[in-house]
C-alpha cells in the first residue's frame, strides 16, 4: 500500500487523477458548446495571462448556462462585456479600478530643493 502511494504521489491516487481529468474534459466540452470560436480564443488568451481569472469566467459562464440565463452561444463581445462587469464588481470591492499610481522617489540633491 505504501509503495502505491509513493508511486502515485502523496495523497492522490490514480483514480482521483482520472476523475479530475474527466471533470476537466467535461468542463471543456460544456464551454465549447456555450462559447463561439472567437470567445473561446479570447478565453484561452486570458488563461495564458491569468489562469485564476479564466477559471472564474468559466465558472460564471457555466453557471449561467445551467440556470438558463444564456440564449444561444456567447460571442466575443458578450465575453468582453462580462469581463468588464467582473472588473467593475472587483473595483467596487477594493476601491480602485486597477489604476497605476506613480510615486517618484526624491533624491538627496533634487534641483527643486535649492533656493537661489
TrEMBL record:
Keyword annotations from UniProtKB, A to Z: DNA-binding
Transmembrane segments: none
Top-level taxon in the UniProt lineage: Eukaryota
Region ranges (Disordered): 1-27
InterPro entries per record: PDCD5-like, PDCD5-like_sf
GO cellular component: cytosol; nucleus
Protein biosynthesis in keyword set: no
Pfam families named among the record's database cross-references: dsDNA_bind
Any one Gene Ontology molecular-function term assigned to this protein's record: DNA binding
Bias (Basic and acidic residues) ranges: 16-27
PANTHER family: PROGRAMMED CELL DEATH PROTEIN 5
Recorded family membership: Belongs to the PDCD5 family.
Name of the featured protein: DNA-binding TFAR19-like protein
Organism encoding this protein: Gloeophyllum trabeum (strain ATCC 11539 / FP-39264 / Madison 617) (Brown rot fungus)
Amino acid at each position: 500500500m505504501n509503495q502505491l502511494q509513493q508511486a502515485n504521489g502523496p495523497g492522490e491516487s490514480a483514480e482521483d487523477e482520472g476523475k479530475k481529468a474527466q471533470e476537466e474534459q467535461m468542463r471543456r466540452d460544456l464551454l465549447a458548446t456555450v462559447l463561439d470560436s472567437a470567445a473561446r480564443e479570447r478565453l484561452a488568451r486570458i488563461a495564458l495571462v491569468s489562469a485564476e481569472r479564466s477559471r472564474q469566467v468559466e465558472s460564471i459562464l457555466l453557471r449561467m448556462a445551467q440556470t438558463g440565463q444564456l440564449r444561444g452561444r456567447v460571442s466575443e463581445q458578450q465575453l468582453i462585456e462580462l469581463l468588464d462587469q467582473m472588473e467593475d464588481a472587483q473595483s467596487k470591492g477594493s476601491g480602485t479600478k486597477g489604476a497605476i499610481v506613480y510615486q517618484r522617489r526624491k533624491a538627496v540633491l533634487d534641483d527643486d530643493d535649492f533656493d537661489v
